[in-house]
Amino acid sequence: MAAQDAYEQCQLDRLIFVPAAQAPLKPNDVQSSSSERLAMLHAAVDWDRRFEISDFELNRGGVSYTIDSVRHFRALYPNDELFWIIGGDQLPKLHLWKDITELAKLVEFIFLERPGHQVKAFPDIPGLRLRRCDGHLLAISSTELRERVKRDLSLDYFVPHKAIVYIREQRLYLEST
Q1: What range defines the domain where residue 89 resides?
Q2: Per-residue pLDDT tens for 118-175?
Q3: Residue 171: inside a domain, yes or no?
Q4: Could you read off the pLDDT of 44-64 as tens digits, one per residue?
Q5: What is the rounded distance in angstroms from the CA atom of residue 1 to the CA atom of residue 138?
Q6: 41 occurs within a structural domain
Q7: Measured distance CA(114)–CA(136) in Å, rounded
Q8: Does residue 92 belong to any structural domain of this protein?
Q9: Second label for 23, Cα 20 to 30 Å away, from 65, 95, 100, 157?
Q10: Is residue 83 one of the residues assigned to a domain?
């Protein structure tokens, strides 16, 4: 839903999902394999021609830094304007991102406000360009979704149906890792 909101409100030409191999600021957050996360993403969006998926970070492996991905996409699309979509809860942490000053020159950030994380102040980063996306606010996290699976609660209306089918078939998130 957040991707659709950003795509529509910001009038993007394409939206590419880039699953991280390992997020640097969330070292213990990965609870499924790269191939499982990629398969869930394909199940969720393959039917929608507005969206694409890049396995760039997964193929690289290791810690995924946004700057590396942005350099990759800049080389692929040298004449395009690039945006990076983040949750508003990431704005206070943006100064911690690797090579943030260079990153701010290469992309404009689109941020989506999340319930409980209303953006009150913006980071002081030279050249930072921010665009707010007022979309549908979802008060659910990936941690909560995994917990719902463990407790045998429905994922309906939170996760695309084909991704739910994949999670059930692969018996993902049933045991603590």
Answers
A1: 2-138
A2: 777 888 999 999 999 987 766 777 888 889 999 988 888 788 888 999 899 998 988 7
A3: no
A4: 999 999 999 999 999 998 888
A5: 9
A6: yes
A7: 9
A8: yes
A9: 157
A10: yes
